[in-house]
Amino acid sequence: MEEFKKVISKKWTERAPTFDDDHATEDITLWRETLEELICRKGNGSVLDIGTGTGFLANMISELGYCSVGIDFSEGMLEVGRQNTARRGTAVEYILGDGETLPFADNTFDAVVNCRVLWLLLDPVNAIKEWKRVLKPGGAVLSFVRITTPEEKAQMLSDTSGKMRYPKKVVQAMPLMAAAIDAHLAAYQDAGFHNPEAILLRRDLSLQEGAKPWYAFRGVKEQEPV
Ligand SMILES: C[S@@+](CC[C@H](N)C(=O)[O-])C[C@H]1O[C@@H](n2cnc3c(N)ncnc32)[C@H](O)[C@@H]1O
After folding, report:
1. Are 193 and 141 in contact (CB under 8 A)?
2. Who contacts 222 (Cβ-Cβ below 8 Å, separation ≥6)?
């Protein structure tokens, strides 16, 4: 596992200098509105962004008024994130670390979010359990996912451009890679969330022609009985 994680983080550090080009087709205003609607705390509280990368969500979260913390195991991605935060005048605390084993106490955050990350995880059920642990009762884990198609998975396995190629054994160790909506919901349930939801997001979140729809998977941590 640890060896595979090193392979994945190294890939993202190599990718970091050009990764933000991928965000060029996304409607940031709409993303911010979507985040606000789903976090639903009007800028009050603290939010943890898992696999924050270059701070795509973490910077918007800060702009919305939340105390924003981003964690990622790729130092290269975080370095670009810090530059983005300085340029935008936002406030994000970036932490280098594994999003599957968090350095935070129980019940710390009002929301835990992640975007384009679930498919990369080697043990998504344990990761989601860990996110639930650091979440305050009443808070939500929100995972933003563009469902990867089996064709994309095949392409990733056969791509020889070197842009983002993992060894086959690493891709095969990613349970939610090219997984269907039900598999994401099952991972939330196995992690202890009752009645998780798959929320279909607005299609124009990505301005790209023919872009695949985004989903937000949401699990709410139950209040403890008094
Ligand atoms: C596709 S990028 C997404 C970055 C950002 N969330 C966004 O939407 O632009 C995936 C990020 O997840 C990070 N990542 C993957 N698995 C991780 C883990 N177990 N712990 C911490 N970061 C992880 C990678 O290093 C990479 O920066």
Report:
1. yes
2. 137, 194
Residue 109 lies in a domain: yes
Q: Is the pLDDT of residue 159 over 70?
A: no
pLDDT digits (tens, 9 = 90+) for 170-182: 988 999 988 999 9
> The CATH number of the domain where 96 resides is what?
3.40.50.150
CA 225 and chain centroid, separation: 30
- The predicted model scores a pTM of 0.95
Question: What are the Cα distances from residue 185, in Å, to 65, 109, 143, 177, 182?
Answer: 29, 22, 11, 14, 5
- Ligand 1 atom closest to Cα of residue 52: 6
Name every protein residue with a CB atom under 6 angstroms from any ligand 1 atom.
8-9, 12, 51-53, 56-57, 72-74, 77, 98-100, 115-117, 120-121
Residue 226 lies in a domain: no
The pLDDT of residue 84 is 97
Question: CA separation (Å) from 45 to 65, 67, 81?
Answer: 8, 6, 21
